[in-house]
Amino acid sequence: MLNAKKILLGITGSIAAYKSILLLRFLVKEGAEVKVIMTPAARDFVSPLTLSTLSGHPVAIDLFHENEWSNHVLLGRWADLILVAPLSCNTLAKMAIGACDNLLMAVYLSATCPVIVAPAMDEEMWKHPSTQQNLQKIISYGNKLIPVERGDLASGLVGEGRMSEPESILNYIKKEILANSKLAGKKALVTAGPTHEAIDPVRFLGNNSSGKMGVSIARQLQREGAEVTLVLGPTEFPLPLNGMKVIRIDSAEEMYRACTQIFPDVDIAVMAAAVADYMPEVMASEKLKKNDENLTLVFKRTPDILKSLGKSKRPGQVLVGFALETQDEKKNALEKLQNKNADLMVLNSLRDEGAGFRYDTNKVTIFDSKGNENSLPLKDKSEIAKDIVDSIIEYIHG
Ligand code: CTP
Fold first, then answer.
1. Beta carbon of 306 within 6 Å of any ligand 1 atom
2. Backbone angles phi, psi at 336, to 5 degrees
3. Whether residue 396 has pLDDT greater than 90
4. Do 169 and 192 share a structural domain?
């Protein structure tokens, strides 16, 4: 449900911080990737070790650590959502005036994603006019509020001010994410990785594709709410892909069979795999033995998966292809866009430094069948994946 969503959980100095441990577990169990930022005061209430163990990421607390500056801008940009739970009276006041004296505040102030807060305090603090004014202020900035509940308070009194229960916060987040998911209700097919075309039982024809680009796109489609099926070639690229259906294949023919079966049922198909164009005409049933002669193998064409999906594409389906070129890049990409009846074509040029199979970065230009062209600078593949998925969304809704 929260598949692959990137959530920054901000924990501030309040006794309700103990509930954040359970909340963190719930978020992770629902498939979200969660990083925790604590304010220095929160450290007195819960242990960073517990939170780092449950989230699988180090807990960030300080703006400066052992003479190193924490890049709050990157953390803020990483997140799809910031959830501050519990939100103390003090941090609320800082959010209202834009004070920046700790890492959480720096990330909050520089983030561009939605921010949701779940306050926790005693009833009198909660009802104090300054608290209520601060709340109105932060809501007017666009932050969302998960209302406090009535019940036992840390002071021993009973009243308003308890942080909402972790289950309620989780439900709120799910609804909020669904409402903001631009591809909710859509189904997507993504291919990734290389294919291996068997020569004999121990040898194959393959390529260096890691699958990283395709897997990043699949994750990003999931983050935008799509239900994703990934057809993945033989690669060591680390899974897990929470909530994603993964079909492992080896050869182009297997990929073709999987894709033609799934395609009629999806709204979006992204062919990011580096599919072999040729396969041995016959696969030797026994291991080929060497002799003193040269070896000649005859190769035949593999099915062109993208082209075949393009032929059967129905109105409303969006088909995305990749073009890996070394010369006449734009001309070749536009020809592929047209010949394969694709809607978008993502061009990689091997002439660009840092682009292609062996890198974590890529540099692409995205063309679409409406005549748009978007040249992106060299970026990490996960950021490129976001740009590609944004282009798909733009193509669908634009
Ligand atoms: N592709 C495919 N099936 C194949 C070969 C490629 O679906 N048998 C898809 C790739 O996943 C990619 C696109 O086609 O999205 C472009 O692949 P590429 O190899 O660059 O283009 P080709 O059409 O094979 O042309 P050429 O090799 O001549 O550049």
1. yes
2. -65, -40
3. yes
4. no
Mean pLDDT value of segment 334-349: 95
- DSSP 8-state secondary structure symbol assigned to residue 194: B
pLDDT digits (tens, 9 = 90+) for 70-86: 677 778 888 989 999 99
Ligand 1 center to residue 272 CA distance, Å?
9
User: What is the spatial distance between Cα 311 and Cα 340, in angstroms, rounded to a whole number?
Assistant: 8
Locate the ligand 1 atom nearest the alpha carbon of residue 273 and give its number.
Answer: 11
Neighbours of 382 (CB within 10 A): 18
Q: Is 207 a catalytic residue?
A: yes
The CB density around residue 290, as the number of other CB atoms within 10 Å, is 6
193 & 55 share domain = no
Question: Do residue 13 and residue 158 come from a single domain?
Answer: yes
Q: 335 in a domain, yes or no?
A: yes
22 band by pLDDT with thresholds 50, 70 and 90: very high
Looking at 171, 180, 207, 332, which residue is catalytic? 207
Q: Give the tens place of pLDDT for each residue, 212-253.
A: 999 999 999 998 999 999 999 999 877 756 778 999 999 999
Q: Show the domain range for 294.
A: 187-397
Residue type, 4: A
Distance 179 CA to ligand 1 centre (A): 36
Rounded CA separation 82/75 (Å): 10
Q: How confident is the model at residue 356 (pLDDT cuts 50, 70, 90)?
A: low
Instruction: Write the DSSP string, 340-387.
Output: TT-SEEEEEETTSTT-STT-SEE-EEEEETTS-EEE--SEEHHHHHHH
Kindly state if the Cβ of 121 falls inside 6 Å of ligand 1: no
Residue 216 Cα to ligand 1 middle (Å): 19
Say what the pLDDT of residue 97 is.
97
Strand partners, 191: 231, 271
Which residue, judged by its Cα, is nearest atom 23 of ligand 1?
336
Examine the pLDDT at 337 and tell me if it is beyond 80.
Answer: yes
Atom of ligand 1 at shortest range from CA of 339: 23
Distance 319 CA to ligand 1 centre (A): 13
